[in-house]
Amino acid sequence: MTNTALATNLAAAADVFSLELSPFGKLVLTTAQGQRFEGVAPVRAFPIQAPDEGVSLIDTDGHEVAWVPELGQCPQPAQDLLRQELARREFMPVIVRIASVSSFSTPCTWTVATDRGDCDFVLRGDEDIRRVGAENTLLIADAHGIQYLVPDQLALDAHSKKILDRFL
Question: Whole-prediction pTM value?
Fold first, then answer.
């Protein structure tokens, strides 16, 4: 059976596979047909706008071996494993306050408070601030490619909004 056929079969019935952790901490998927895939990784289709809808399980070669249409409908042991693995793999700090910027021309260093603590990062250019989905949601990429999320720019404090407005 090809990977495409397997993914199609699993997409039709997301509850026909089981997940477990190997002794080495790798996620192992076993299909109803007994096929085992060690080291699968969950990847969200829409990580910002619909984080619980559409989760793909990919093998070590990057091929999709299973599709979970809605994470909440997965059986509980598998759902917990998927959520833990997604949390471990994903890193997208949420900016809650912009304390300062070194300059209003780029590149510049931003000092921000996030949901994971305070940090400094370098913004290479204005194009590294992108609107996504809802009009007020922003993604800001630093010089190292780390994505910072601003879920609602209008919910930021006045000082943060003033700084952000200079770059938008």
Answer: 0.63
